[in-house]
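Entry 14. Structure prediction run on the chain below.
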Amino acid sequence: MSELETISLTAEVAARLEQEILRGIRNPGDRLDERQLAESFGVSRTPVREALQRLSANGLVVSRGRQGMQVSKLAVADLLDVFSVVAELEALAAAQAARRIQPKQKEQLQTTQVACTSATDAKDAEAFYLANIDFHEVILQASHNRALQDHLRRLTVKTAHYRHIITYQPERMKASIEEHVTIMEAILAGDSTAASKAMRAHVTLLGEGLSDLIHYLSRSEEEEAAQG
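Output returned:
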């Protein structure tokens, strides 16, 4: 295999692993075995090893010595810091999308919002979670800011598991739908200030959502400490 082919396979494996983490197929603490991943992706262990090294450099996976590589976990304090950064980057993406969104992207944004609403009506948290990813991704694409896209996508993967938890909180889907409408209307109206403000409020962890998430993480840390 040529060096270029290996580089291409490495990028493909890294991208697939990022998507699996983003979509909840692999969660914080899950072991990432090179041999199993190579068999699953139909590649040799070399691109898998290099992909894991790349994800490790981005903070998405971590080495646990004899336990091997695992999907990274975030301590409560680190998670809150990451969410505060994500809120600002998402707000910037929404503001730029309001100024730069293209007609086709407007249609895509409305389509993803319909999918979110349908999932909410069906009380299908999994479907909502995936549709919500698409809603935010359309806005990010509509920002037409490559540097922002690179940074925000990486952090979005890092916080995916915790957003997943929030999705299952009572009434969270319904509240998100209302917040989405405010964001979408501001973007479609070209109001960058309103879009930014609405997105920041949507992403920032406040009130009961924050309390419940901290409770979950604290309990998880206690259980992990007790096991080992």
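The chain is about 75% helix and 5% strand.
Filed with the rest of this week's runs.
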